[in-house]
Amino acid sequence: MHQTFDAVLGINLLHANQQGADHNRAHFDKWGITCFNMMSSPGAGKTALLERTLAALTNELKIAVIEGDMTTDLDAERLRKYNVPVIAINTGRSCHLDSKMVAGGIHQLEHEYNPSDFDLVLVENVGNLVCPAEFEVGEHAKVALLSITEGEDKPLKYPIMFQEADCLLITKTDLAPYLDVDISRIEANVRQINPDVEIIRVSTKADEGLEVWFNWVRTQVLKPQQNSLSTAAILNVVHIH
């Protein structure tokens, strides 16, 4: 079937991005780093969750952050207070990070630090419920956040992010008594899209579910089992400049 120019262009962009993501992941594997891609709508609580995560885990894990935002470094400044490397990337008009942008962050990390010293890189993506899920950045796991204030139907209306997520954090659960929302219904809608996703209810304000999240992070941050042949092949094909 003949495809429109826009369709072909979209396929080519995703293909090129995937090549870059595979290359980024090869670097992470080479250094023994686990990478999470943190995704959500604006205001779902990504930065607040990262603040609590850094406060709780930096005594046991060496963590760096790649912080994506359209125009400011406000979130990056919040996270720098925890004395971890935070590399800010402004995307301009782009509504998501892509693998090339994150490659720039990796290059900066490699230039300023010894990347083999790190256990975990947290990529905070631009606040958007659609585009970030389609553009891999080299992550080993996708972590999605959904605030209960967004409504029960969002997993069904915007399914891609929930299909792709390895872990879903349902956030701001402390607000449930004040809202006409059924958290169990949110979970059921997510399960229709992705039956196997890990779902964790959290509130950074009320300290609900955070230890469950921290334990999930700990289980994921195992030094990636490096396939030296495939890693070397990818690194020889594409180079980060």
TrEMBL record:
Q: Name one Pfam family in it.
A: cobW
> What are the residue boundaries of the CobW/HypB/UreG nucleotide-binding domain, all occurrences included?
39-200
State the Gene Ontology BP annotations: protein maturation
User: Per its UniProt entry, which superkingdom is the organism in?
Assistant: Bacteria
- UniProt entry tagged with the keyword Metal-binding: yes
Which InterPro entries does the UniProt record give?
Answer: CobW/HypB/UreG_nucleotide-bd (IPR003495), Hyd_mat_HypB (IPR004392), P-loop_NTPase (IPR027417)
Please provide, alphabetically and separated by semicolons, the GO molecular function terms listed in this UniProt record: GTP binding; GTPase activity; nickel cation binding; zinc ion binding
Which keywords does UniProt give here? GTP-binding, Hydrolase, Metal-binding, Nickel, Nucleotide-binding, Zinc
Q: Which PANTHER family match?
A: HYDROGENASE MATURATION FACTOR HYPB, HYDROGENASE PROTEIN ASSEMBLY PROTEIN, NICKEL CHAPERONE
**NCBIfam families, per this entry?**
hypB
Assigned protein family: Belongs to the SIMIBI class G3E GTPase family. HypB/HupM subfamily.
Mind telling me what this protein is named?
Hydrogenase nickel incorporation protein HypB
Source organism per entry reads Komarekiella delphini-convector SJRDD-AB1
